[in-house]
Design a protein that fits this description.
Blueprint: H1 2-15, H2 17-23, H3 27-43, H4 51-62, E1 69-76, H5 85-97, E2 102-106, H6 115-118, E3 123-126, H7 131-139, E4 140-145, E5 160-163, H8 185-193, E6 197-199, H9 202-209, E7 221-223, H10 227-234, H11 237-244, E8 251-255, E9 261-262, E10 265-266, H12 270-282, E11 288-292, H13 296-301, E12 310-311, H14 318-322, E13 327-330, H15 335-340, E14 346-349, H16 353-359, E15 372-374, H17 377-384, H18 396-403, H19 411-419, H20 423-426, E16 435-439, H21 447-461, E17 465-470, H22 481-489, E18 493-496, H23 505-515, H24 523-541, E19 546-551, H25 557-564, E20 568-575, H26 579-584, H27 593-597, E21 605-608, H28 611-620, E22 630-632, H29 639-646, H30 650-653, H31 655-658, E23 665-670, H32 679-691, E24 696-701, H33 707-716, E25 723-727, H34 733-738, E26 741-744, H35 753-760, E27 764-768, H36 771-777, E28 783-785, H37 789-802, H38 811-827
Parallel strand pairs: 1-2, 1-4, 2-3, 4-5, 6-7, 8-11, 8-13, 11-12, 13-14, 14-15, 16-17, 16-19, 17-18, 19-20, 20-21, 21-22, 23-24, 23-26, 24-25, 26-27, 27-28
Antiparallel strand pairs: 9-10
Helix pairs in contact: 3-4, 4-7, 5-10, 5-19, 12-17, 23-24, 32-33, 32-37
């Protein structure tokens, strides 16, 4: 019943979305929404949506009206689920330094609060994901969290954001897990926009911030240690034991396993944890106290323990509590590393070791930790009595020096001193290298993506810091997306950025008009678009600065507009084709392309990938940008990599081609299979050649919405046995090298990268007599012909008879010239 009602409510909200968005501008309706959606999430289990959208809308509506208060700090530990950890350590130091500091703690209903927080009259509490929480995010000058703020958060000018994270990882995180990149998006964004991220080691930087793809374009990561360890090292053990009512002569054992599962599904490993608790309790003497610390969702599921155990009190921070613990029993939890600083015995109980290592993955194998490792209950029972210190293992000192070398008990003091003094600005050290921010596009396997990867490689090899913006939503539908992201990560930092996100109601409708071409946008609506994209840029890039911001794709209205508002000295947008022809092509579904054109005037330079297409676009789109902002810059190409890939045996790439006799003339076409590539005409021309009894084959590399039509065309002409459709190939170069001649029959092109690639491999080319192809093939000895059936047939027949091989193409000279053009476009003359 509850589930059916939830589905009904969601359908209703979607049906009336536009009306709901409009009404939110009314304060009374917004108040009504808070109450109604709060009821829905409480009684129907709709924890995130739509209530969070109301909170986000209130945050955005208040963004320019609520001022930052200089003497106010906001602390958030695990989204209000605890009052502790690194934020708590920093809180204590900030209050010690400034007793008049006003503080807000994010604290959910039922969460216990330490005495020094609850008794501080300058502290107020707000629930996470509430109206008050949204307002606190806007009011506080100092923002301290150990996880992340919600996706609608936009750091305001004057705010100082300290992101501490919450542990030194043993298990893998972020990009290093086999999961969708979308799961890392908001955590990465929080790392990117933070002003200050304290870490204890390069290990933590690599396996926390870098694991989530943190770009560090603000130079915000600093080796100052973990504030929570200040609590572990400096806590008064005797005082805590008195508070717990425990005799100081009695031994304390803590069982604290890591969290398993997801928010919606608690792992079945909970049964192992229950068994472990019972076994530990039964094998401890009467003089030993057993405490247990579990994730709150796991704790809720444990109903019927056969033994009595004490849970760590919620009003005592777990890192403070560690100072009382004599023996820790855990598994892959970061609490193991925190406890190692005390050099007290640690036991790892890992009955799921092989499965966990295989599925989740580990940065540090349990065998490499200075701990006793147990794989079953019997081994655990034996280990409990051994009492072996970490320092008795040979790896102890080396591991500490690797993962937490900066542990002196003064991390909080160092951080707070920096935040409250002018030394904070000293951390923003200037960089001498150029910084380039660039939107990549969808990363499909096409010419733009190929050119983009060469673009990134070229700049990276010349000591330019490249930051590549990608939209992780493409991962769902584009098979090549993730692999191309990993290729790019070898050369550049990758910034994950979802699209539209939270908007105000008037922005929502203005952007919807913009997407449809923007024909009816009023001046007020244009202003709303400007306001949204300014804030969207600030949300992603904060107060950083780049030398160049580039929309390399040039096809997405959203990214064309957003990159135009990126914080950069110089802004460029690319034109990879005859853009007016793309707009008019009924076979190409370029939604919002005209709105891309309307963003051109916001850029310093509109970059065409050839001089020929520059002239074509200037004539066709003269109403959208000035001719003096138009330049051409040929795509840089990594010919060395192409040659290396081309030397892979062709049968590894496409076995059917390897079986073609050497005397057979092989023609190849490499392109997207869509109307403007004119492959149908090529097939018809090849059919005529086949009727001449010429021993020949046609290999068609690529995929697209025209595949079925092309396949039927081959069958209709009776030549399907002489045509090989390979689909997309991640490495088409062995095929191109094996071919005798590359055919390029497009109706229009921006440059024709595949022609340059083929010529670098010594493959003769026949291309369409269109401006961009004429420019590329001019002076090479290769041929251009009209993209008609008879012309292509004549050209192929002529090739069979003449077998031309001489190609006048110097790849080194091309790279030098293209590189100079690119450098000049981005940074000015060398």
């Amino acid at each position: 019943m509850r589930s059916a009602l939830r589905k009904y409510v969601i359908r209703y909200l979607r049906a009336f979305k536009d009306l709901d968005v409009r009404l939110r501008e009314w304060p009374l309706y917004e108040l009504f929404s808070f109450h109604v959606y709060n009821v829905l999430r409480t009684f129907l289990g709709m924890h995130k949506l739509p209530y969070r959208k109301v909170v986000a809308h209130h945050y955005l509506k208040s963004y320019r009206h609520i001022n930052v208060e200089d003497n106010l700090a906001l602390f958030d530990c695990f989204w209000g689920r605890k009052v502790g950890g690194d934020p708590y350590a920093i809180y204590r130091e900030m209050v010690r330094k400034n007793p008049e500091l006003k503080c807000i703690w994010v604290c959910n209903k039922g969460v216990s609060v330490p005495d020094d927080v609850s008794e501080n009259k300058s502290v107020s509490l707000v629930a996470h994901d509430s109206k008050e929480y949204a307002e606190a995010l806007l009011r506080a000058k100092y923002l301290i969290c150990n996880s992340n703020f919600l996706p609608f958060f936009v750091k305001k000018p004057g705010q100082i954001f300290i992101n501490t994270w919450h542990g030194t990882p043993i298990k893998k995180l972020g990009f290093d897990i086999e999961q969708s990149l979308s799961h890392s998006t908001n955590t990465q964004r929080n790392f990117n926009v933070a002003d200050f991220i304290p870490v204890s080691s390069d290990y933590e930087k690599d396996h926390i911030i870098k694991a989530y793809g943190g770009a560090d374009f603000k130079n915000n990561v600093h080796l100052l240690g973990a504030p929570r360890l200040d609590l572990t090292i400096s806590s008064n053990r005797s005082s805590l034991l008195n508070k717990l009512g425990i005799d100081s002569q009695r031994k304390i054992v803590l069982y604290a396993p890591t969290w398993r599962g997801s928010i919606v599904s608690v792992s079945s490993q909970i049964d192992d944890q229950v068994a472990a608790i019972e076994a530990i309790k039964e094998n401890l003497g009467d003089d030993v106290y057993l405490f247990v610390s579990l994730h709150h969702l796991t704790k809720q599921r444990i109903k019927n323990l056969s033994v009595n155990v004490d849970f760590v009190p919620d009003n005592i921070d777990i890192n403070e509590f560690l100072s009382c613990v004599d023996v820790l029993i855990s598994d892959y939890s970061s609490i193991v590393v925190d406890f190692l600083v005390l050099d007290r015995p640690v036991i790892l109980y890992v009955p799921d070791y092989e499965e966990y290592r295989s599925e989740r993955g580990l940065y540090i194998d349990v065998e490499d930790l200075p701990c006793l490792t147990c794989f079953n209950i019997e081994e655990l029972v034996v280990a409990i009595g051994l009492d072996k210190k970490p320092s008795e293992f040979g790896v102890y000192s080396g591991l500490l020096n690797k993962v937490i070398p900066v542990v002196q008990g003064d991390s909080s003091e160092k951080i707070v001193s920096s935040v409250f003094s002018s030394t904070f600005d000293d951390f923003e050290s200037p960089r001498s290298k150029y910084k380039v921010l660039v939107y990549a596009g969808s990363l499909k396997e096409n010419g733009i993506t190929s050119a983009f990867k060469s673009f990134v490689s070229y700049l990276s090899d010349r000591d330019v810091d490249v930051y590549v913006v990608v939209d992780p939503r493409y991962e769902r539908n584009i098979p090549s997306f993730r692999s191309n992201v990993e290729i790019i990560r070898d050369k550049a930092e990758v910034i994950l950025a979802n699209g539209l996100g939270a908007t105000l109601s008037d922005e929502y409708f203005a952007i919807r008009k913009l997407r449809s071409g923007g024909h009816e946008l009023s001046d007020a609506e244009v202003a709303k678009c400007f306001s949204y994209f300014e804030r969207a840029s600030l949300r992603l890039f904060s107060d950083s600065s780049f030398d160049c911001a580039i929309d390399f794709s040039g096809y997405s209205y959203y990214w064309a507009w957003l990159m135009a508002f990126a914080p950069a000295k110089r802004k460029l947008i690319y034109q990879h084709s005859d853009m007016k022809a793309e707009l008019d092509n009924p076979h190409r579904d370029h939604v919002g392309l005209e709105s891309v054109f309307k963003a051109y005037h916001l850029y310093d330079r509109v970059v065409s990938v050839s001089a020929a297409i520059k002239s074509v676009n200037e004539r066709a789109l003269s109403g959208y940008y000035r001719s003096d902002s138009s330049i051409s810059s040929a795509n840089v190409i990594d010919f060395e990599t192409i040659e290396t890939k081309a030397n892979v045996p062709v049968d590894f790439v496409c076995p059917e081609i390897a079986n073609i006799p050497s005397e057979t003339v092989v023609f190849v076409s490499v392109s997207r299979l869509s109307h403007e590539k004119n492959v149908t005409t090529l097939i018809e021309a090849f059919a005529r050649l086949a009727r001449e009894k010429i021993d020949s084959a046609l290999v068609i590399v690529g995929d697209g919405n025209a595949y079925e039509e092309l396949s039927r065309c081959a069958v209709a002409h009776g030549i399907d046995d002489r045509i090989i459709f390979t689909g997309n190939l991640t490495n088409p170069f062995p095929v191109m090298k094996r071919a005798d001649c590359l055919m390029f029959p497009s109706y229009y092109e921006g440059q024709g990268l595949v022609l340059l690639e083929a010529m670098s491999l010594g493959t003769f080319c026949i291309g369409s007599d269109i401006p961009a192809v004429r420019e590329v093939l001019s002076g090479t000895g290769c041929w251009v012909v009209p993209p008609r059936v008879d012309s292509l047939e004549d050209a192929m027949l002529r090739f069979v008879n003449e077998r031309p091989v001489a190609i006048n193409f110097d790849s080194d000279q091309y790279v030098k010239q293209a590189g100079n053009e690119l450098w000049s476009a981005l940074f000015g003359a060398r």
